[in-house]
Amino acid sequence: MGEIYSVGHRITFTALQPYALTNQLESMVFDVEITKQIAIGTGLHSQVVIVRIIGERKGLDMPLVAKFYDHRFFQEVDPAKWPGGRLQCCLTMRSNELKAYQTLQPLQGSEIPKFLGEYTCRNPQTTDTAFSFPDAILLEFVDLQTLADIRPQDLSMTDRITLKDRAFAVLNKIHDLGVYHRDIRPANVF
Prior knowledge:
Elements: E1 10-15, E2 29-39, E3 47-53, E4 64-68, H1 85-103, E5 115-122, E6 136-140, H2 157-176
Antiparallel strand pairs: 1-2, 1-5, 2-3, 3-4, 4-6, 5-6
């Protein structure tokens, strides 16, 4: 199952509505290739990879982050909380993330990555239009270090205080917009 998220795999994306990214393309349908895995495996709320758009796309050769909400990777969920099981849990997680990015639009491109749309996906090697991949969202790829990449002993006390203050300032802005981030960890803070 994990092979569908392996490096080199190609996927056809179809935008569910026009977005800034698709406005730069000739069509709302385009192929991508996975170039790097970020978070792949069971128990994750999304399968996260870096992709690139395939073909001659002027100005669109930058990497993008694709997050697939694939219920097949969810661990068993509590039936009392999720009567629809893993699929319902997965769809709810994706819906919550979509709402969060729409709400956080004023912070995109500065404090948080840009949201580049919601897409249905399929395998481009087949003509079968049936569901072969879960839906995905695309985000701007930010090539910066995260707190998980930094060793605290390499930072001065002033740098540590600055990072802390900046992180809390962004969290405050996010909370002011009504979104509460429940996955604050070093890998999620640039």
